[in-house]
Structure formats: C-alpha cells, structure tokens
C-alpha cells in the first residue's frame, strides 16, 4: 500500500530517520522491563476506575452525572456497603497507583518514541491498523493520565466534563492496552529471555552498550548510538524513584491521619482544628451557603409519595441517634475516617411511611439554582450505617461540613454524601 507523495525509501530529515534517535539505552529489553511494570499497574488503575463508576450506581437517575447510559454500561452488581472503607480503598488505589505508574508510562513512551516516527508511516493495511491502535493507545494513555492528574489537582484546564470524558477515554485506552499487551507479550518474553531477565541491571555506566540485535524487534536499537551518559540501572532507578515519590503522595492522602503530612503536593489537607478539622472538598463559601440559609427556619423535607414530613433540626435530634466511624472517601482519592452521629435514612423513610426496598433521592439547598443531588441505592439505605448526620466527633457539623445535616454512609463515594441537605425523596426501588 503506497501513500501518495511518500517515498518509502527516503524518509524526511529529523525524527523520521533512524539516525536521529541515538540513545544507546533504547531497545526491546528496556521497553519490555517498563512494559512489565505497566502490565502490573495499569490493570489495577483500570479496574478500580470502572469500579468507581459502578460505585456511582449510574443506573439510578442523576448518578450517571448527565451521561446517558449505553451498551457499555453493564453493571454486574450493586456496589456493596461492606466493608465501609471499600470505596476509600478503591479510589485510593486508583489515584495512588495511577500517579505511581505515570513516570513509568512516560519512560515507556520515551523508549518507543522512534516507533512513532516510523517511515513510511503506513506500509500495508495491517500496518495501518497497528498504527491506529498505537495512536489510540498513546493518545488514550496520555488523555487518561493527564486529565486524571489535572482533575485531582483541581486544575480544570479542559473545557469538558471530566468524569464523562475520563470514562469514555477509559474504554478506548483499556481496549487499546489489552490488544497491545496481547500482541506484544511474545516479543516482551523473547527480549527478557535474550538478556537473562534483569541481568543488564548489573551493568554500570562503563559496561553500558547498545542492546544486541533481536530478530523482529530491532527498530528501537539505535543505528549510530552516541556514548552513554547513564546506565540502564540509573535510568530505571530514576524512574523508580519518581514512581515511589508519587506513590507516597497518593498513599499519604488516601490513608490520611498521620500519613497525610507525607502528601505535601496533594491539594486537600486538614481544614482548621478541632472535631471538624478534617479535609473538605467544597466549602460552604464555594457553594455560596451562608449561616442565613441554615438558620432556625431550615427544615429537612422527607417526601414519600403524597406524604411529606418537614423536620427541624431539633426534631431530627429528638429521633433515635446512631453513631458510626465511617470514612469520607473522595473521588479524588483522599479519605478521612470520622465519628458521625445522626438519624438512619431507613428510619426517616419509615417515618414517612415507606419501608423495605426503597431508594432515596437527596438534594442539597439550592443557591441560585445550583444544588447537589444524588440517589442512594436500596443497598445503601438498608445498611443501618447510612445516616442523615447531624454531628461529627461529638459536636455539631460545621457549616463547611454540611450543617445543618448531611448524608454519610459506608462505601459511598464522597460526592454522594450530600451536604446542606434540603430534601430526601423516598421511592420504591
Ligand atoms: C494518574 C492517573 C489517573 C488519575 C489521577 C485518575 C483520576 C480519576 C478520578 C479523580 C476519578 C473520579 C472521577 C469522578 O468520579 O468524578 C476517576 C474515575 C475513573 N477513572 Fe481515572 N484516573 C487516572 C487514570 C485512569 C486510567 C489510566 C484509566 C483507565 C484505564 C482510568 C479510568 C477511570 C474510570 C473508568 C473512572 C470512572 C469514571 C466514572 O465514574 O464515570 N483512570 N479517575
């Protein structure tokens, strides 16, 4: 298959010529070692990502955050509520391993970059398809990692809704990754076996040489290598150190408590001191909620069909109170466990006349038409630890933590733990 205006025998000057790529470190062994690390890390990131989507229970109304469900939205189960830290661990892993994998991904892309400038760009139809899958793989990877990292740093530089774009990007990347891994696995095994696995790590700078030829996988080995400036051991050590550094940043914010201080690059730290002095995603000020919106006139409306209960905070405090240690698990990967007290959502549903298999639509106070909303599944409501919380660590919630009342429950994504609660609409599941 010959492209018009493309002379396959004479590549244009620059990166399309093999002589352009001169690092002696590139080769199938280095790429395979980095590939091995990605084969461990990326499946963890992908699986925890799709589980995060499942934890939203997108089949329940608003929970799909505006995305209409399609054939790829098949949910095999409702996200469990046991153990209570399940979502915290899932999202903590997603972000932490995602961060740790990023330097390895960049090193892998560096190691194969000559392949991206192959000449001629297309030789046969099969070659064209391979190039297309590489474009989806590299494009998908960069899209997922870059949008993910910008998102957790609250740097919304992209003009689209992160969750939906990241979700669709995940399908493209996961598909391309799986096919790439399947195609490249034999080459990877051959390259590692040819150099006795990790033996090249024993080579210092003075022993560093271009990799020996490996039939069928030579295109990364430079044709006119320059002298090495670092060994493969030093290169992989540097990548490993970067990965470890980012792993600590992610793990520090995911585990929280005394480890939180390790995550000094993470944006969300303790918010003030005392019983309410734990991290916050969105403050009352950011939501434009003031003390005036939550004064003594505030009421929680519990709606069940034609029946509506309008409960003051005092009336809620007069109902049976339950206390549980539960994590707030943010979708951005940080979490913190606190002691919450309040009324079971199932008790409020029963008080409004609905028992058994019910769901609850939550809605916060609306300021200028803007409000938070979510749908709690019947699994979440039937778990007695799902509360309308009024107190935390033995004291009233602060305004920033959702005073007068907020939702809290086990293994529920933080974004569904609606603060500044205004209505709870109970419906049959
Ligand atoms: C450092 C890398 C990454 C970071 C920081 C990151 C960050 C995030 C965040 C913050 C969310 C929660 C979004 C929300 O609920 O609003 C999320 C969800 C998700 N991520 Fe990632 N991500 C990364 C890499 C990846 C990769 C490589 C994949 C795919 C293989 C992936 C797949 C997903 C999926 C499927 C979701 C669920 C989206 C949804 O709920 O609709 N992520 N990610």
Please write out the topology.
Blueprint (H helix, E strand, L loop, with lengths): L27 H28 L30 H31 L8 H28 L9 H33 L37 H24 L44 E5 L2 E5 L1 H6 L3 E8 L5 E10 H7 L6 E7 L8 E4 L1 H5 L4 E6 L2 E2 L9 E3 L12 E8 L1
Parallel strand pairs: 1-10
Antiparallel strand pairs: 1-2, 3-4, 4-7, 5-6, 5-10, 7-8, 7-9
Helix pairs in contact: 1-2, 1-4, 2-3, 2-5, 3-4
This protein binds protoporphyrin IX containing FE (HEM).
Protoporphyrin IX containing FE (HEM) binds next to helix 1, helix 2, helix 3 and helix 4.
Largest sheet: 5 strands, mixed
- Label the overall shape: elongated
One letter per element, helices H and strands E, the order comes to HHHHHEEHEEHEEHEEEE
Low-confidence stretches: none
Counting helices, strands and paired strands, the structural category is alpha+beta
Rg from alpha-carbon coordinates? 27 Å
Beta strands, count: 10
How far apart are the termini?
58 Å
Strand content: 5-15%
Biggest sheet strand order reads 2-1-10-5-6
* Average of the residue pLDDT scores: 92
Bound molecules: protoporphyrin IX containing FE
Which tags fit this structure?
429 residues; alpha+beta; five-stranded antiparallel β-sheet; 8 helices; 10 strands; 38% helix; 14% strand; binds protoporphyrin IX containing FE
Give a brief outline of the structure.
The protein has 429 residues and is an alpha+beta fold. Helices cover 38% and strands 14% of the residues.
Could you characterize what this model shows?
It is a single chain. Helices cover 38% and strands 14% of the residues. The protein has helices at 28-55, 86-116, 125-152, 162-194, 232-255, 313-318, 345-351, 378-382; strands at 300-304, 307-311, 322-329, 335-344, 358-364, 373-376, 387-392, 395-396, 406-408, 421-428. Helix 2 (86-116) runs antiparallel to helix 5 (232-255) and helix 3 crosses helix 4 (162-194). The chain is elongated and about 80 Å long. The chain starts with 27 loop residues before the first helix and ends with a strand. The model has no long low-confidence stretch (mean pLDDT 92). The structure holds protoporphyrin IX containing FE (HEM).
């Amino acid at each position: 298959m010959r492209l018009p205006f493309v002379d396959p025998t004479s590549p244009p000057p620059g990166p399309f010529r093999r002589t352009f790529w001169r690092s002696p470190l590139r080769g199938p062994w280095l790429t395979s070692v980095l590939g091995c690390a990605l084969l461990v890390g990326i499946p963890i990131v992908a699986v925890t990502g799709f589980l995060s989507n499942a934890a939203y229970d997108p089949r329940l109304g608003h929970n799909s955050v505006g995305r209409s469900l399609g054939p790829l939205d098949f949910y095999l189960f409702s996200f469990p509520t046991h153990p209570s830290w399940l979502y915290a661990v899932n999202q903590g892993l997603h972000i932490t391993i995602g961060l740790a994998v990023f330097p390895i991904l960049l090193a892998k892309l560096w190691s194969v970059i000559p392949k991206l400038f192959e000449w001629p760009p297309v030789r046969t139809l099969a070659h064209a398809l391979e190039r297309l899958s590489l474009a989806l793989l590299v494009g998908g990877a960069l899209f997922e990692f870059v949008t993910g990292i910008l998102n957790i740093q609250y740097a919304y530089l992209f003009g689209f809704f992160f969750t939906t774009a990241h979700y669709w990007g995940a399908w493209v990347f996961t598909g391309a990754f799986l096919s790439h891994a399947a195609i490249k696995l034999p080459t990877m095994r051959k390259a590692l076996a040819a150099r006795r696995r990790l033996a090249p790590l024993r080579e210092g700078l003075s022993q560093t040489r271009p990799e020996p030829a490996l039939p069928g996988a030579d295109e990364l080995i430079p044709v006119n290598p320059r002298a090495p400036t670092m060994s493969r051991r030093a290169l992989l050590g540097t990548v490993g150190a970067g990965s470890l550094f980012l792993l600590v940043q992610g793990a520090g914010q995911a585990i929280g408590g005394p480890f939180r201080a390790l995550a000094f690059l993470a944006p969300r730290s303790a918010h003030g001191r005392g019983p309410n002095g734990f991290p916050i995603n969105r403050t009352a000020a950011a939501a434009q909620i003031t003390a005036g919106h939550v004064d003594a006139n505030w009421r929680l409306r519990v709606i069940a069909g034609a029946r509506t209960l309008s409960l003051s905070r005092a009336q809620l405090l007069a109902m049976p109170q339950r206390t549980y240690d539960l994590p707030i698990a943010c979708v951005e990967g940080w979490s913190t466990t606190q002691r919450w007290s309040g009324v079971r959502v199932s008790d409020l549903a029963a008080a409004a006349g609905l028992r058994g298999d019910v769901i609850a639509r939550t809605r916060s106070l609306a300021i200028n038409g803007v409000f938070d909303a979510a749908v709690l599944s019947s699994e979440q409501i039937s778990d007695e630890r799902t509360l309308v919380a009024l107190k935390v660590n033995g004291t009233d919630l602060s305004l920033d933590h959702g005073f007068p009342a907020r939702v809290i429950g086990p293994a529920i994504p933080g974004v569904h733990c609606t603060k500044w609660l205004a209505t709870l609409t109970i419906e049959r599941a």
